[in-house]
Amino acid sequence: MTPPAAKSAADGGAVAVAGNAAVKISPRVQAAEAAEAEARHEALLELLGGTPLGVIYLIGPRRSPIGYIALSFGHSIARGGIIGSVEEFYLRRALRGRGIGTEVLGNLLRALSSHGLRALRVETEADAPGAGLFRRLGFREAAGQRVLTRAL
Q: For the N-acetyltransferase domain, which residue ranges apply (predicted)?
């Protein structure tokens, strides 16, 4: 008898197994995830290659960083100039909760302000573990605003 996971995989889709349950992931979902991963890879290469539209800063020693923060930049008429967005912020799990994120973001906010940035924004889920960090540093939800996005 063929196990369900093996049979599903033979039908042309990946299989995720959790305990005794097997869930087939359709080829269409696999293709979408692969395309998303490729787009992300290209975006990272552009940042690493040097662009005025964004930057990635390593946190900690160059030879063994403990994290990174990726920013993108744009112009805002409403804010009166250049603004930044936190695209990603990562610290090694074992080092979280020690004030490192607060120190990094605090220093970054001062540096960006001294270079003329008018605002820094971050998109996060309200209950995300890192949301409190941003709130403690003065990030607030824009009253009455909701970010709408359309992929192009």
A: 15-152
List, in order, residues 6 or more apart from 90 with CB less than 8 Å away: 67, 68, 69
> In this structure, what token pair is assigned to residue 141?
């939800």
Whether the per-residue pLDDT at 4 is higher than 50: the answer is: no
Phi-psi region of 50 (alpha: psi -120 to 50; beta: other; left: phi over 0): left
The CATH code that applies to domain 52-136 is: 3.40.630.30
Which residues neighbour 117 within 8 Å (Cβ) at sequence distance 6 or greater? 73, 81, 82, 83, 84
Spans of all domains in the chain: 1-49, 52-136
Q: pTM for the complete prediction?
A: 0.71
